[in-house]
Amino acid sequence: MVNLMTTNKRATLEWTGVKVKRSAKNDFVNHMKDELKNSSSIVVAHYSGLSVNETDSLRKEMRDSGAKFKVTKNRLTKLALSETQYKEIADLFAGPTAIAYSSDPIAPAKVAVNFAKKSDKFKIIGGAYDGQKIDLEKINFLASLPSLDEIRGKIIGLIMAPAQKIASVVAEPGGQLARLMSTRQKQLEESN
User: Fold this and answer.
1) In 3-state terms, what secondary structure has residue 4?
2) What is the CA radius of gyration of the chain?
3) 29, 42, 135, 172: which could form a disulfide with 101 (CB 3.0–4.6 Å)?
4) How is 77-134 classified by DSSP, letter by letter?
5) For the chain (length 192 residues), average pLDDT per consecutive 10?
6) Could you tell me the maximum CA-CA distance found in the chain, to the nearest angstrom?
């Protein structure tokens, strides 16, 4: 039996070996197409041999970083890709494939590469960035870049640094004057 479950604008198909109604497939393809159109990067991987716990762990890591991870039917995913800027990667969907995607261009690559280092059953086979097909080398490069949160933290640090310097420069003359007076007082006490 197949159920199309829609919660919080998310559609997923549950496959149990029975033919799926065409309307459920169309809904799934349309939902997937909309999500992919709003994504700036996609990572495609083979997941054969991953346990349910490992897959759930990967999904949680993706979700925590702002990315999505789905194990989908290749034919339906290819249909969804055909009407997006990512149609070039349709040839990657052969065998047991899964897809990670996000509007954050770095998150799917970073999580997928880190997970692939921990599990030899998870193999990244390619992906896309901003409509261009990319290979494993470019995915590794994306994964090495700082995340949006890290970049935001650095920018805030840069913005805050001048304010701290201004405060120390403003406070410094008073500190210098206090040290000068203290030194002069010691000199006067020593001379008496």
Assistant:
1) strand
2) 27
3) 42
4) HHHHHTTSTTGGGGGG--SSEEEEEESSSSHHHHHHHHHHHH-TT-EEEEEEETTEEE
5) 43 52 85 90 92 92 92 90 90 92 91 93 93 92 84 79 65 66 80 74
6) 104
- Tally of CB atoms within 10 A around 101: 25
Environment class of 148 (CB within 10 Å of its CB; exposed 0-12, middle 13-18, buried 19+): middle
Per-residue model confidence (pLDDT) at position 183: 81
- Write the DSSP string, 150-190: HHHHHHHHHHHHHHHHHHHHHHHHHHHHHHHHHHHHHHHHH
Is residue 31 within 8 A of residue 95, CB to CB? The reply is: no
pLDDT value, residue 5: 46
Q: Within 13 Å and on the Cβ side, how many CA atoms surround 16? A: 5
What tokens were used for 116? 């692939």
Predicted model pTM: 0.69
Polymer length of the chain: 192
User: At CB < 8 A and 24+ separation, what contacts does 30-35 make?
Assistant: 30/80, 32/70, 32/72, 32/76, 32/77, 32/80, 33/80, 33/81, 33/83, 33/84, 35/68, 35/101
For residues 11 and 24, what is the distance between their CA atoms, to the nearest angstrom? 9
56's enclosing H/E stretch is helix 52-64
